[in-house]
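Quick one: structure for this chain?
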Amino acid sequence: MVHVVARMELNENCFDKMMDILRDLVPVVRAEDGCIMYNPSMDVDGNKTFLTIVESWESEAHLKAHLASPHMADYRVAVADLRKSSDVKVMTPVL
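Got it. Here's what it folds into:
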């Protein structure tokens, strides 16, 4: 199993547009082979500057297939102007 924490800083006033894109994307990703969890999340203080996607995949191969999928290529194009930056951490459980 692998876990992914993908945190992005959004450009000003882009949260709602990002959420529109994610509403369409999330069901598609969750239906992918090997997807255990795919949850967009915001900070508990309600700050709409940052958005984090918390993911779990059955294997690194499943994650790689997800990243290579056409809908993720479309997603990267659609959000390119909405994000200032992003940071992705891929982890594996140790216990």
